[in-house]
Model the fold of this input.
Amino acid sequence: MRPNELKSLLETAFPGARIEVASPDDVHFQAVVVAETFAGQATLARHRMVYAALGKRMGGEVHALSLRTLTPAEAEGG
Amino acid sequence: MDVIERIKNTLSEHPIVLYMKGTPDFPMCGFSMRTSQALNATGAEYFSVNVLEDPEIRANLPRYSNWPTFPQLYINGELIGGCDITLELYESGELQRMVAEAAKQATAQ
Done:
């Protein structure tokens, strides 16, 4: 999968989020997702939300996904 | 024994469990390697399961834990996270505190 395809899947799942996706090989991905919906959620729960959006693609087309999940306030702060 | 029973037994028998690809000495994936290195750096004793040698665990643990990939780190039976979360916790010093706490509880029992 191209990074742009992964990005648009995440954009559909997290409307209004700021999303960056990179991949050296179209199988291993790094993504940063900045979304208000993460507020009040622990990192584990945030990552689960992203994995849930990708469903069966995780572990299949997406062999690995390294994630940073932030709220807009956290992204500002650091 | 049913695979879910096996998972539950492992998690109840060991306070710190790492399900990974390969072993801490011979990790077979960069994410598993980095996660076990972070655990090694805490000095904690942990139990590791090589999911490449146990296809049944590899196929079923993600459903049990609602977490799609490996490695998966558990402390006191609870999923802590994968590579990203473990490294984040290590860098903040929180992982060291969590494993020390788990070891202390295990000794007290």
